[in-house]
Backbone:
């Protein structure tokens, strides 16, 4: 297996990865395919090898919200795989993607506790969980403002800090961005147009440039 630049494998060497192979499998998905479904109990987390995955929720009225976008080398469903609790979200292929599934339940069995990678894997899972909490907090911050512009500005400011640039490549299309910010798509598009006309931003497709 080629070395993946994933936080799950920090300080785990090549020989240890080989020793962990019994817990790995790969699968490919086309855009829009369901990888994990709400209500499902999973024993595997997913690592995005190629493409991207959207974590989505659907409320009782049928309204969809995108909670996060998982890009290359990033991880999803790790908490559900570790705790064996039913999924409360759907994991959907945001683009055509290849996923490395890691069977946490198999790897963390007590009879593996003397293996050299065991403690490293546990530490890495803890670090990943902590960073995921930050990601979820960021979405709460983005949806907290009452105005459409407030939500957009909060989101763009966070994305600018993350990408360290004023020219931002959005991980979402327009509908997905509206879902992420819990907004109506037409209202979102109208506000983006106003911000462009006021000289605050320019945009082309999924690239937005902050002008002020």
Residues:
């Amino acid at each position: 297996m080629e070395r993946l630049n994933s936080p799950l494998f920090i300080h785990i060497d090549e020989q240890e990865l080989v020793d962990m192979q019994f817990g790995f499998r790969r699968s490919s998905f086309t855009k829009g395919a369901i990888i994990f479904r709400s209500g499902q109990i999973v024993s595997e987390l997913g690592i995005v090898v190629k493409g991207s995955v959207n974590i989505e929720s659907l409320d009782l009225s049928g309204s969809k919200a995108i909670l996060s976008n998982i890009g290359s080398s990033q991880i999803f469903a790790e908490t559900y795989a570790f705790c064996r609790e039913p999924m409360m979200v759907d994991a959907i292929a945001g683009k055509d993607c290849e996923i490395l599934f890691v069977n946490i339940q198999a790897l963390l069995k007590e009879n593996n506790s003397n293996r050299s990678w065991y403690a490293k894997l546990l530490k890495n899972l803890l670090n990943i969980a902590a960073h995921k909490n930050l990601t979820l907090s960021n979405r709460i911050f983005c949806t907290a403002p009452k105005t459409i512009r407030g939500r957009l500005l909060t989101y763009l400011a966070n994305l600018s800090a993350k990408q360290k640039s004023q020219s931002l490549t959005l991980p979402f299309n327009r509908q997905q961005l509206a879902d992420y910010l819990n907004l109506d798509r037409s209202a979102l598009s109208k506000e983006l147009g106003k911000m462009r006309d006021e000289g605050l931003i320019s945009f082309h497709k999924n690239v937005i440039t902050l002008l002020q």
Observations:
- Residues 118-143 form the longest helix (26 residues).
- DSSP finds seven helices and eleven strands in the chain.
- The first strand starts at residue 24 and ends at 29.
- The radius of gyration is 19 Å.
